[in-house]
Specification:
mainly beta, globular, binds flavin mononucleotide, 31% strand, 3-stranded antiparallel sheet, Pnp Oxidase, Chain A
């Protein structure tokens, strides 16, 4: 079948738009920020990924508005302060990650709301999630404005450079690898579905030198 998303996002045979189910699994960027006046914030973004290797850069995509008007807290805070932290979400963080996705008032600290402990960063002001498998300290590079959606919904790509990387000692193996089976990274599928990594296999690239 074929459908044209500039005409409809939900073709007749589908109960919901299939678009996001077709970009799956998506890693989850659990982004912590702090507002200019000092209110901490934490929210998950599944339009998230690494976008450069060296220097390492990551991106996430806040769309829509905050219920109090204006951009979502995360975008507002990054725009105000130029800093954010990517926290990795593993199996053990799944319920707390979900709690932090609620439409809270701007004054709410979602890290506290979810019963999470914050830990200080080295080079940026926002707290990181202490028990996350890993956290990246990021400096904002640029925000790309994408075409707006129905009713003027804003869509953005926020790109930041990673300037510090924390790895939880509990997920580092004795032979110096990151233990994926211990982390069980969480990823978003379509609809309300998630998956986590439990199964690994390796492929050697043709001509790979290691
Ligand atoms: C797993 C998951 C992934 C999400 N991904 C996105 C996303 O990519 N972009 C977005 O704008 N909202 C996304 N959301 C919704 C935001 O987390 C939610 O709107 C949140 O309240 C934003 O918080 P803030 O206003 O504190 O920034 C996602 C929610 C969940 C549960």
């Amino acid at each position: 079948m074929f459908y044209d998303p500039t005409v409809t996002m939900k073709p007749p045979r589908f109960k919901h738009t299939p678009y996001k189910a077709l970009i799956a699994p998506r890693p989850i960027g659990w982004i912590s920020t702090v507002s200019a006046d000092g209110v901490p914030n934490l929210a998950p973004f599944s339009f998230f990924n690494g976008v450069a290797e060296d220097p390492p850069c990551v991106m996430f995509c806040p769309y829509g508005a905050h219920m109090e008007g204006g951009p979502k807290d995360t975008l507002k805070n990054v725009t105000e302060t130029g800093e954010f932290v990517y926290n990795m979400v593993g199996w053990d963080q799944k319920d707390q990650m979900n709690i932090t996705s609620g439409p809270e008032e701007r004054a709410v600290d979602e890290m506290k709301l979810a019963g999470l402990e914050g830990a200080p960063c080295e080079k940026v002001a926002p707290l990181r999630v202490k028990d996350a498998p890993a956290s990246f300290e990021c400096k904002h590079l640029l925000t790309v404005k994408l075409p707006t959606g129905p009713g003027g919904t804003e869509n953005n790509i926020v790109i930041g450079q990673v300037v510090g990387i924390h790895i939880n000692e509990a997920v580092i193996t004795e032979d110096g690898m990151v233990d994926m089976k211990k982390i069980r990274p969480l990823a978003r599928l379509g609809y309300m579905d998630y998956t986590s990594v439990t199964d690994l296999f390796a492929l050697t690239r043709p001509g790979a030198r290691g």
